[in-house]
Amino acid sequence: MTPTTVIDLGRQALELTLLVSAPLFIAALVTGLIISIFQAATQINEQTLSFVPKLIATFITLVLAGPWMITMLTEFIRRLFESIPSMIG
């Protein structure tokens, strides 16, 4: 295994990690922004008011995007396992 192969494999893994986690981060970010605007408008400063909706939005996003995320991860792992003989030899 050459250093170039290791670097390329690490780059692919990081790209996949960012791609798979992006929907969850975006859902939490949008929910947090909406809740922050609501809190600023009503002057309610309750920590659980921002935490619970983010948790619910993240869970709903995970349910909706979960099959796509699992498919992306299993395809990457399948390609990785299939390329083991060529990486070693």
UniProtKB/TrEMBL annotation:
For this UniProt record, the keywords arranged alphabetically read as follows: Bacterial flagellum, Cell membrane, Cell projection, Cilium, Flagellum, Membrane, Transmembrane, Transmembrane helix
Q: What is this protein called?
A: Flagellar biosynthetic protein FliQ
| Bilayer-crossing regions | 16-39, 51-70
Q: Give its localization.
A: Cell membrane; Bacterial flagellum basal body
- Coiled coil: which residue ranges? none
Provide one Gene Ontology biological process annotation. Answer: protein secretion
State where it is primarily located.
membrane
| Family membership | Belongs to the FliQ/MopD/SpaQ family.
Q: Origin organism of this chain?
A: Zoogloea ramigera
GO annotation, cellular component aspect: bacterial-type flagellum basal body; plasma membrane
Q: How does it sit in the membrane?
A: Multi-pass membrane protein
One Pfam family hit: Bac_export_3
Family matches, as PANTHER family: FLAGELLAR BIOSYNTHETIC PROTEIN FLIQ
Q: What function does the entry list?
A: Role in flagellar biosynthesis.
